[in-house]
Amino acid sequence: MISFYRKLKPLTIIGVQLSGKIMTVETLQGAIFDTDECDAFADKLESRIRSHDRDIEKLCSAHHQGFIESIRDLLELKGLANRIHGEVQTIDSDICRSVTQLKLKGQELADARRIERNMKTTIEMLQSCLPVLRAYIKLQHQMKEKRYYPALKTLEQLEHIHLPSISHYRFSEHMKRSLAKVRESIKEASMIDLKDFLESIRKYSPKIGEVAMRHTAEQLNIDISANSSVIKRLMSPTVSGEFDYEAQSESVYSVEEDLSAQDLVDFSPVYRCLHIHTVLDAKETYENYYRKQRKKQARLALQPPTNMHETIEGYRQYFHGIVGFFVVEDHVMNTASTLVNRSYLDDVWNIAVSKIASSVRTHSSYCTDPALMLKIKNLVMLFSSTLRTYGYSVSQLVELLQEIRDHYNEVLMQRWVHVFRDIFDEDNYHPIQVTTAAEYQRVIESFPYRDGHLEAAPFPKRFPFSSLVPKVYRQIRNYIQACLQFSQDLNLADQEIDDTLRRYTNLLLTRTLSGCLSTLIRKPSLSLLQLIQISINTNYLEESNGWLEEFIAQLTGASRELSHIARLQGRAVFRDVRDDAEQQIYEALKRKMDEFMELANYDWQLNEPSGQASSFLMDLIAFLQSTFQAFTNLKEHVAQNACLTACRHIAEILMDLLLSDDVKSISMGALQQVNLDVIQCEQFAASEPVPGFEDGTLLSSFLDLRQLLDLLLSWDWSAYFHDYGQDTSKYLRVSPQRAITVLEKLREADKRTVFSVLKKSERDKKKLMETVLRQLRQLLQSSA
Predict the structure, then answer these.
(1) CA geometry: angle at 646 spanning 643 and 652, to 5°?
(2) Structure confidence by residue, pLDDT tens digits, 559-579
(3) Is residue 706 a part of any domain in this protein?
(4) pTM here?
């Protein structure tokens, strides 16, 4: 059965015809397994296979001999085919060699015929190109000989006549390129001449500018050597109030020959180069190059020397170079208008004038010499006038002069700071005393002070002010004259000069003099009497304000009806300084009082008072009485304020002593001693050390201290608590905090008494003190 299955397994595709039907292997297998004839089917199948095998063997046996013969015929055919193939290859090689030789002979023949034809054509072409070559050789000789005008003509003939006839030849393109190089070489050669010209013009520009500025000075009738219009003498203020003059010995200009720009420089390279570039159709390129190079030179000319601010020669060199540049450009514009025109020059000038103003502004800001600044001003004016004659706008330079004038004023004010300080240092701060009429007249001439009583008084006469007043007044006048030196020749109206002088004088008064006086009165070395004299001096300096206004009007010639527009601020300045001086008087008085109060040496554990005021306080009161006697020359309100300040300061010091944290305990005897000192102070206040006070004004300074001492000494706490917070309270000025502070110190002093706890009265007092302290703290908390 197993062998049967093995035989059926390969039969998966073929079909078997059974009972006249086509059946698949699966169907056949199913049919076989459904019957009991499996063994019979296997035997038949095996028999059928053997039958087919025999048929196959018979067929192979029948055709074997023919197959062998066919193989033998094929082998013979193969040998024949190989022999034929070899013969064919040999024949092909012979044919290829023959064809190659034939091809070479034909190529040689063709080349020979082509060379002959090319030679004929070349001869014809060379004959047609000979004129071009002759012209080109001629051009080369002209270039070597630097004959640029004939070279340009030959170049034009080549480009417009000869080269078009041979344009179909390739070498004509090479020749065109070479002609372009020739054209560039002509440009370069002409540009070398132009560069030499630019270098020359840069060298001679300062000289040209110097000549131009000299001509302008002559045309405007400005005699610089005689200094009729330009300031030659410069003021140097001294403490004495006089003027020192220094002659300007140097020559403003040293021009050997009266030459113009075209006399100093040959302008032909400019015109020649312009013509060459015009012919070469490169005029625009040349114009751009010329303008670019000149702009570079302008930038170099606009760069100031590094040490320009040190001497006037640096400014002259700077301005000469700039003027020379624009004079040259103006000449080129007039002779070659296409190269330089007015719009181009205006653009260059607009850029230049801003840089000029910036450079001069920067370098002049370093200047601290008024004489040098006046020379700068004169040079700027001449520079502006020179360029104005050539049609340039100089409005920015006018504004620059105004800025320089402001800086000149700042320099003057800095110098006057030292002048005022020297005056203050030399003054003895005592009234001027004269013994002769000549001395009296000198003081009156330096300071227009008039007093009928003083004039009628016999010699020696005493002015109410010190020598500081006439010296300061004289120096203010000198300052005004120095300011006028700069404003002259600026073509300003009289009223404008008047307003300017008033503005600058106000700056001197409000900044310089006010600052110097403020510094003076704050010097710790000044005594109280010196401060008093300074305060008196400010009164008379304030009166000089009107005289200074009249002096300015006389200098400028301006209408006095319009002078009220810019009044001098001297009155307000000296009034403020006087107020400051009065405050310093008060502060100096306080400092002197502090020196006395530093001697206070209270024995805070004192059992019994001494019965009289403390010695340091008696000395202080004696000092105040003598000091207030010296206040008679001051105004009444100054003495009154000083006296009121002194009383309040004493009260504050005594109150601070009682409340000081350094004092830990105070005995009742010490408190009574303080009360005696306060009584002495109240007696001093009641004696009216300075007249003019209303009743009780000075005594009110000690009211806080008096109410506190009365409350502590009388132990009137029931009235204090009952009337607390009411305007009618007897102890209205006693705050709970102050009362607590002093009570705690009294309680601390009682603790140090050993036998105080043995006395019933002391124990009751202690309990009462604790009760009072508790109530005071409650008041303090409720008010908070």
Answers:
(1) 145
(2) 655 544 557 776 777 778 778
(3) yes
(4) 0.62
